Amino acid sequence: MKKQHKDEEYKSFLGLTPLIVFLVIFMSTGAITKSFTNMPILVGFMFVLAYSLCLNRKGEKLSLDEKIEIFSRGGGESTIILMVVIFILAGAFYSVANAMGSVESTVNLGLSILPTKAILPGVFIIGCIISFAMGTSMGTITALTPIAVGMSQQTGIALPLIVGTVVGGAMFGDNLSFVSDTTIAATRTQGVELKDKFKMNGLIVLPAVIVTLIILACIPIGNASIKVGAYSLLKVLPYVSIIICALIGFNVMVVLAVGILTGSVLGLALGSFNVVQLFGFIQRGFGWMQDLSLIAIVIGGIIELMKYYGGIGFLLDKVTSRVKSKKGAEAGIAALASLIDLATANNTISIVTAGPLAKDISEEYDIDPRRTASILDIFSSAFQGLVPYGGQLLVAAGLAKISPVQLMPYSIYSILMIVFGALSIILGIPRFKRQSN
User: Fold this and answer.
1) Where does the record place the Na+/H+ antiporter NhaC-like C-terminal domain (predicted)?
2) Which domain holds residue 232?
3) Greater confidence, 109 or 377?
4) pLDDT level of residue 6 (50, 70, 90 thresholds)
5) pTM
6) Does 428 fall in a domain?
7) Any residues with CB less than 8 A from the CB of 76 and at least 6 apart, and which?
8) What pLDDT shows up at residue 247?
9) For a Cys staple, 404 with which of 44, 47, 389, 397, CB 3.0–4.6 Å?
């Protein structure tokens, strides 16, 4: 037990250097090749893993086997394994839906309903609604990305733009939904009610939603002639099923399983494939997500090594030591959540890690705990929608078959969350009356 406590308290800049090494490799490759999409994410992190295994704490030296054990513990952490299962189920669903014509029918139905100029705002709004109901950005991205890809092919809208719009809508619910794990983590660590955090959080990000819709409505999508093809309402049912399950509040794995089952039964009934072909399509979907699964596992292991080497402790210490005023305290909480999310690529872990320290800071500087919970959730969710090695951009890019780096500039809502979150801190708004304890 003493050793575990010592591990948690250990702080060292050395523990942050694996992340710095990745950024150097990534930026250098992009600068040399003049394209930031040329560096494969998995290859980059394998270099980082090799570097991480060469490190040691000051005055302490572990064997390679012991370091690999730490790496394996992080890569096999329950959240990582759950993410991997979601990845492969998402691939299977997309593959089956595509094979039975569900994607094409859903795209054509959407194009027949949405005017051309309203496609981008429409996709964003739908993403916001589904993610708010489902409470998870991953499930929303899984459901909408294939449809967005089809719309891009039909309309000529740039693929990174429309898929980035999906990611933005997904992060809306990830941040605000009552059933989102980030919302639950933020409210529990600060001891506030869900509805109170929602009111504070909602007022901060509402301008970001409005400005996002205006920007999307103003983006020219060319003079592409949209030819709306035929669609079958029956073939749309796999997507309808996962949306209904999401609205009911089922676990994302159950949602995807229902979607796969619905697509499989309908595909067999309509003669789109036989049982043997169905198994092949499911396996094909698994294969599409193998790279993403490996990336998630490797990142999880590297993060565990970074924790052991003191990187996360170093971050916490440096940010909190610079807090001098109430406004600075709020900025410190935002920086804490953001930096830990960048280091761990997991906004829930970011909130859980930063939450107790943020509570201490808010009490010392008399910050409304509803505001603290909102700041934690807004900034961690915003950066989660922008990091190219985070699960959200990885799964969206995997389904769209593009680099996650291409999505970063088009996650417009995530960027605006940071902008309006920062303005909220600078201007000290919204102002609510403090609740009596």
Assistant:
1) 19-216, 241-425
2) 79-179+206-291
3) 377
4) very low
5) 0.74
6) no
7) 297, 300
8) 66
9) 397
